[in-house]
Amino acid sequence: MRSRRSSWPHELPGPNSSDIPQLSEEPVLSELFRRVGDKPILTPDSMPMEVSAVFNPGAVLVGDEVVLLVRVEDRRGVSHLRVARSPNGVDGWHIADEPLLEPRLPGNPFEEWGCEDARITRLGNGDWVIAYTAYSRYGPTVALATTTDFVTVHRLGAILSPLNKDAAVLPQTFDGRWIMLHRPVAGGQEHIWYILGHEDLTHWSLPGVLLPEGGGPWWDGLKVGVGAPPIRTDDGWLLIYHGVKEVANLYVYRLGLALLDLHDPRKLIRRATEWAFAPQTDFEKQGFAPNCVYTCGAVERGDEIWMYYGAADTCIGLAVAKQADLLRFVHEHDFLQQVGMSQGMVE
Fold this sequence. Notes:
With 347 residues, this protein is mainly β. Helices cover 5% and strands 44% of the residues. Strand 18 and strand 19 form a beta hairpin. The chain starts with a strand and ends in an 8-residue tail after the last helix.
């Protein structure tokens, strides 16, 4: 592995510390998440080769080390997934010399144009399952792979038909079945769905709508998609999801919060009316996809949620929030209590 150290000014305390000197003094526009510093933590210059962009990383804790699976877009426009490791999760990143997942032809034709947007879940046997978008001339679709060490990987292949993406597997089974969230496209509609899987993770069935796009003028009115894999809390599974609104013929990507039932995550029990995180800094508002914050991974460190996110499809930022604050927000701003359970939600 090649080590690239950023110009970050300070070391971050360990995961159990709440004293984080890099956090902004005040949340921007009263956002729940506070950015760590005023710059991205990884940029194209962080990579060991010339690339166009680095963004949308999956994120997990492996021991005391933060491991990111970064989407790297090369100068052709094709993406691969590459491992970055850091002891403190902020700087001192060690970037793998080779991709973990890259287009591999002819055996994987649905990856012809790239491997994108990994979301990582630890399974009960200690393995990690990676849900990612396989992109080809046939459109984007959901593919799975497993790893034990983030050095080698076993592909399970494409498991759903296009057009589909934004998939994440929950970390435990429910009545012997896996649950995966995903975002198919049908008739111009882009809702978050669930689907049930068998033990081998290759056979999926019995889908249903979990969280519909907001419609109308809502911040998530145009489309929604899974952000980080759901996080287990005492109140339910905390889901960070992205929502898109079209403003003056431009898309704005923000992040919101929802809660899924702890014992049956096919049931949506809370959905915040307001967004929780939005593009505000220059590096979030300017880039290949302006006005875009998009997460694929968040990790629990003590009582905090560390959210790694793509900024403007160009670089990677980090923002931190107290888990208790996120839960309080989704309860206080619950959409379902305002409009009733009859508006297209699971009863």
